[in-house]
Amino acid sequence: MKVCLLQIDFYLGGCRSLKEKRQRLKGIRDRFGRAANVAVCESHHQDVLKRAQWTFVASAGSRDVVDKTLMDIERNLLFSVDAELVNVEREWLI
Q1: Which run of H or E residues covers position 18?
Q2: CATH for the stretch 2-92
Q3: What pLDDT sits at residue 35?
């Protein structure tokens, strides 16, 4: 079993309220948390207006499957979220 953690930090320029922040990041958990091999959560900066960090954990029998899953998530977020991806880190746990 291979397990990898993906942390993505977002910058939400021009964000004026926590309500706007939630709206701009809406759907991340629903979109990616449905996959059988992925867990997702907002992991940091919950009460900061212009910052957010989301963590994704993927597992599979092969490293290639985990890598593809996380690359797909990263690519999708790059084009679908109204925020700038400012930092992306991966950590292989197993």
Answers
A1: helix 18-24
A2: 3.30.70.1120
A3: 85
